[in-house]
């Protein structure tokens, strides 16, 4: 049986040399619940990845960020579904976000990123984009 493919857009938000990381709520499969991720979410049928990302950031963080260009995409197969994760380079002028859908957030320097327990797809993205060495 073919696994469902979920298209996701995520924001790699940088400010002052640090990257924004958000910890997922205690919901969903055990292999993603309470893991760290780049904020974002599902791309709906009627929207572009950038439109989805803008909507998701507003819904999850009530935050205004500047959307940049796509910086990469990975395909990751979880046990129950496959994720096609598109990442966008984004910037923030402030830290005026609200944690509406996350347990906590951190701003980390690139070399600190892999010290967190990331979702597997986001960890793969960090490695593919070499975000932890920039």
Automatic annotation (TrEMBL):
Needs which cofactor? Answer: Mg(2+)
Gene3D superfamilies this protein is in? Nucleoside Triphosphate Pyrophosphohydrolase
One Gene Ontology MF term: 8-oxo-dGDP phosphatase activity
**What InterPro entries does this protein map onto?**
MutT-like, Nudix_hydrolase, NUDIX_hydrolase-like_dom_sf, NUDIX_hydrolase_dom
Q: What class of enzyme is it?
A: hydrolase
Q: Does the keyword ATP-binding apply?
A: no
Q: Which UniProt keywords apply?
A: DNA damage, DNA repair, DNA replication, Hydrolase, Magnesium, Metal-binding, Mutator protein
* Nudix hydrolase domain segment(s): 3-130
- Reactions performed catalytically: 8-oxo-GTP + H2O = 8-oxo-GMP + diphosphate + H(+); 8-oxo-dGTP + H2O = 8-oxo-dGMP + diphosphate + H(+)
Q: What Enzyme Commission number(s) does the record list for this chain?
A: 3.6.1.55
* Highest taxon, organism lineage: Bacteria
Q: Which Pfam families match?
A: NUDIX
Output one GO BP term: DNA replication
Q: Which family does it belong to?
A: Belongs to the Nudix hydrolase family.
* Protein name from the UniProt record: 8-oxo-dGTP diphosphatase
